[in-house]
Amino acid sequence: MASTKYIKKHIKSVKDTHKITNAMYLIASTKLKKAKSDLDHTRPYFNALQAQIKRIFRIDNDLDNKYFYPVDNTWTRSKTYACLVITADKGLAGAYNQNVIKEAMRLYNDHPNTKFFVVGEYGRHYFEEHNIKIEQSFLYTAQNPTMHRAREICSILLDLYEKDIVGKIFVIYTDLKSGLVGEAKSTRLIPFHRAQFKDVNDESKVVHNMQFYPSLTEVLDNIMQSYISGYIYSALIDSFCCEQEARMQAMNSANQNAEKILQELSIQYNRIRQAGITQEITEISAGAKARQRKDEELWKVEE
């Protein structure tokens, strides 16, 4: 049976761990609120971009653009894929990183010639350990997603796409669903299907005399670059929010387990302490009785 000294040491260790996990829970909660606020502030801008793209296709639905599948569905571009994989910089977030890696490996198994671009230390270490080539690793932390970094990533990926080095670009990230539930998903970023921007309920809003300068194609190209940057930024923010949510859940479970262990150790400590006290009382009582018997024997001898 463990001694009271050992149990007290174990209790202290669990309490120290509980303080750390509770602090990590509070930090993740604060980061989650800030990231959600940043995302909410930028969404109206990109919703407006999406509305403008819909307006362009309402004016000319057959407009040819490099970021969309051709109208006749003929596709002659490179069969090499590019894939942006967004992971965290560290673990302690449940299955958050593992789910993203599973999606990445599913794409890799189907298309071994995929060029990977990785955000997050966890993803970098995984691909290096499994000897999977990383085309480019973005060394800045996944803990601070910004629009500037999203534009940098977008520029690199679009450069490969425009040079026909890659024919499709995918993003693997964790999508923040309603109720703060994260789901790892693989999304084709480009090319887009025109149906994604078709609004069948807005036919009455077509403005036939609207003019675009210098041309409809160039305006669409410019809008699409901003829209793609926004999509990448949204994926970075969504992933960051899901990471913090997953870490909060993991730390909350750790806190509950620590409290359960502390309760069990406290009960065990009290039992051992009570047993020790009972043993001491028993020994004192036995000693007193032995002393009493000895004294009685001495009295009998003297009589």
Sum up the structure in keywords.
303 residues; alpha/beta; Pyruvate Kinase, Chain: A, domain 1; 2 domains; 5 helices; 5 strands; 12% strand; elongated
How many structurally independent domains? 2
**pLDDT < 50 runs, ≥5 residues:** none
Overall structural class, as computed from helix and strand content, comes to: alpha/beta
The second-level CATH architecture of the largest domain is 3-Layer(aba) Sandwich
Name the CATH class of the largest domain.
Answer: Alpha Beta
Spatial sequence of strands, sheet with the most strands: 3-2-1-4-5
Distance between the termini: 49 Å
User: What is the CATH T-level topology of the largest domain?
Assistant: Pyruvate Kinase, Chain: A, domain 1
Alpha-carbon Rg, integer: 33 Å
Strand content: 5-15%
Please trace the helix and strand order, writing H or E for each element: HEHEHEHEEH
Q: Overall mean pLDDT score?
A: 82
Note the total helix count: 5
**How much helicity do the residues have?**
55-70%
Considering the protein shown, what is the CATH homologous superfamily of the largest domain? ATP synthase, F1 complex, gamma subunit
Total strand segments: 5
Gross geometry: elongated
Report the sheet with the most strands, covering strand number, pairing sense and barrel closure.
5 strands, mixed
How would you characterize this protein structure?
With 303 residues, this protein is α/β, with parallel strands linked by helices. Helix content is 60%, strand content 12%. It has 5 helices and 5 strands. The protein has helices at residues 4-59, 96-110, 121-129, 147-162, 216-302, and strands at 81-86, 115-119, 134-138, 168-177, 181-190. Strands 3-2-1-4-5 form a 5-stranded mixed β-sheet, sandwiched between helices. Strand 2 (115-119), helix 3 and strand 3 form a beta-alpha-beta unit. Helix 1 packs antiparallel against helix 5 and helix 4 (147-162) crosses helix 5.
